[in-house]
Every structure is written in structure tokens, then in C-alpha cells.
Fold this protein.
Amino acid sequence: MTARRLAIWLAARPQEPSFTRGLALFINTGVIHRDLKNRLRVHARSATYFDQPEAARLMQYCTARGNELGPVADNFGAACHQMDCADLMLADLRAGVLPGEGRSTASGPAAGASAAACLA
């Protein structure tokens, strides 16, 4: 699971408004604000925080980025969304070629693949 997907998961849950804003900023731009990192650290270490495993994994990603906490790219959110769509498309293609399941669509992924699938 990507760090962005973890952030989307956490943002969809009830959170403090400042934490939600930090997650939204990360989801759209890739920026890791100091307040977001601090809240993640608190949640990752809390045994009572409901989404503690997800917060801990996102905190590991933030730590791995080191001092490079600025925007990842101008179109970070859009590119990640395309990758998420491509992942789903590839999962559907993979499910269609499992043994015992005939494939009723085109002969190869290139026949119906979009630019997002090609990107993946």
C-alpha cells in the first residue's frame, strides 16, 4: 500500500481538523508538514489510537523521506490517482487470466489498456 493510500485511509476516518488538513495536503501535493509528522508520531506510538498500524506505516514513510519534505511534483495527486486506477485495472486483468477462468475480452492487455495501465 502506498503512503498516499494510507493518508487517504486516515483522512477518511474521524480525525482532528489540523491532522486532516495535513493529510489532505500530503494527499494532493506530497508535502509532509511538521505538524503532520508530529501528529503521526503521537498516533503511531499510542496503543489506544484506533488506526495505530496505519499511522505507524505512514510515519515510517515520512521518516524515510528525511529532509526532503516538500512537494513531490506539480501533479502528484493526479499522477497517484492514475496509478491507483491502473492498479485496479491490472488487478482486474490478472483476475481474468487465473486458471479455470476463461477470458472473454480482447487477447492482450494492450487491446483495452488505457494510458493509466501503461503508466503502471
